[in-house]
Design brief:
heterodimer, A: 408 residues, alpha/beta, Rossmann fold, 15 helices, B: 80 residues, 2 helices
């Protein structure tokens, strides 16, 4: 059963019953799911979790979903790998990679969408929707297909058709919008208000957010029920970053791990880094920017949870780091060459950001550090197409031996 | 009557301008401020606008033309 008791405004504390709700009616701030942690602590143990399925549903009691027959693509329990080769390159002795390339639609969004779509079903919606240029769209379309729900996916008309294959294969209603990025944002806000749909990151956002907590749960469990010393994760809207932290905090509150002393570091692409800029300026106000980066999966200029991500970075004794596009590409290549993981550019931002944090002396070599790789590379592989540099040979051994420099 | 919830972000040179007052006088739009943070060199206001669709849209277009950034309160909805 779920121990979710209602929704609560993160700013003014106003409480609401569990329902589709985009923001607090009073102060228009984000709302989040509230739980009866006392009752939850009596029902949840390390053993009860370990006895669950090898998916995010092993944490069912910590999520706001009631159904026992959840729509499930098999998301969760992705590998946490000890990254000795990359650690050696960066000067870290205890580096781990949480590899969320390995989810059903190849990004961490499956965690969040799994919870949101199940909740949409419980609320009686027959249609789910989102606005996305890639990962979120694929995840929503795939989950809707499995759930037998209708899906509407809105994308700006200038998105390359190739990027949409991984979305269209699930046969959602794909809507391309003639207009700028901001125009699409405005249209979707109006669509969400007008139609009785489950809009994944608008009126279902409080539930969507909760799915991301499972990244924190899994890492702690996979580390033998402990929280890491340092976390390095990408930040777009800031939601994922805050929910990794919330996941760790909840495990501690339930006495499943010791008190959390994790330093949380967020990373952004310099061309879309409003949270990093606010952190560097010592401000708590996130000034919206217009994204200009190739790292499109985290290019959010007006991050809904930016303020809260900033607070987590500050309160945890962590920080915020940006990297430029070239550094992000180098990070992608370094991760692939050392650990065999082909991440999307956001993963490159994490690795390049981690390198800078180590060089600046903020993360030390003995600290148990987890870098979160939240999406796979093939969806946007054209940005590293320069790696294809084959050796050309004639179809005989002599030619090959000459060119390759390998003795026959 | 429609309602639209938006965030205005004011650049430094518009901090002293009574933009919200003028918005509600130039257009048939009721403005209802819910949250705000305005200092001498920057400011943002989260507010609800109520009126006919065309009046709200024209009002927002005028505010943008004045140099104010206008965003949905949900933040960016398009995600990667």
């Amino acid at each position: 059963m779920s121990f979710a008791t209602g929704l609560r405004c993160r700013k003014c504390g106003q409480e609401y019953p569990l329902q589709p709700l985009k923001v607090c009616d009073f102060c228009l701030s984000p709302v989040e799911v509230n739980y009866d942690y006392k009752a939850m602590s009596k029902a949840v143990s390390r053993d009860s979790i370990a006895a669950g399925p090898t998916t995010i549903w092993r944490y069912r009691d910590l999520l706001p979903v009631e159904t026992k027959h959840e729509i499930d693509l098999g998301t969760g329990m992705t590998p946490l790998v000890k990254a000795d080769n990359l650690g050696w390159e960066l000067g870290l002795e205890r580096l781990y990679i949480k590899n969320d390339c390995l989810t059903p639609t190849y990004s961490f969004k499956d965690r969040a969408v799994a919870v949101a779509v199940n909740k949409a079903k419980e609320f009686g919606f027959d249609t789910v929707a989102c606005a996305s240029t890639g990962n979120l769209a694929a995840s929503v379309a795939a989950h809707a297909a499995k759930a037998g729900m209708k899906a509407y996916v809105f994308v700006p008309s200038n998105v390359e058709p190739g990027k949409l294959v991984g979305v269209s294969i699930y046969k959602p209603n794909l809507v391309t919008v003639e207009g700028s990025y901001d125009d699409v944002n405005r249209l979707c806000a109006e669509v969400a208000q007008r139609y009785n749909w489950g809009f994944i990151n608008i009126n279902l956002r409080p539930y969507y957010a909760e799915g991301s907590k499972t990244l924190g749960y899994e890492v702690a469990e996979q580390l033998g029920w402990q929280s890491p010393d340092c976390v390095v994760a990408p930040a777009a809207s800031g939601l994922l970053f805050t929910r990794i932290w919330k996941g760790l905090q909840e495990l501690s509150m339930l006495k499943l791990i010791d008190p959390v002393n994790t330093h949380m570091y967020l990373t952004q692409a310099a061309g879309s880094s409003p949270i990093v800029k606010a952190h560097e300026a010592g401000s708590l106000h996130i000034h919206p920017v217009t994204p200009n980066t190739i790292v499109t999966s985290i290019a959010i200029g007006n991050p809904a949870d930016g303020y809260y991500a900033l607070m987590v970075a500050r309160q945890s004794g962590g920080g915020a780091q940006d990297v430029n596009d070239e550094e992000a590409i180098e990070g992608m290549k370094l991760l692939a060459e050392t650990e065999g993981i082909f991440a999307e550019a956001a993963g490159g931002v994490v690795i390049a950001g981690l390198r800078k944090l180590v060089q600046a002396g903020k993360i030390h070599k003995g600290q148990l550090t987890v870098a979160f790789i939240t999406g796979a590379g093939p969806r946007t592989q054209e940005i590293v197409s320069d790696v294809v540099q084959p050796v050309k040979v004639e179809p005989n051994l002599k030619s090959f031996s000459e060119v390759a420099g390998v003795g026959v | 009557m429609a309602k639209k919830q938006v965030m205005f972000t004011f650049p430094h040179d518009l901090i002293k301008e009574p933009i919200i007052y003028l918005l509600s006088h130039k257009f048939e739009v009721v403005t209802n401020i819910r949250r705000a943070d305005v200092t001498e060199n920057r400011g943002w206001v989260v507010l609800e606008l109520e009126g006919e669709d065309k009046e709200i849209d024209a009002g927002i277009a005028w505010v943008i033309e004045k140099g104010v950034r206008v965003d949905p309160i949900e933040g960016d909805i398009i995600e990667g």
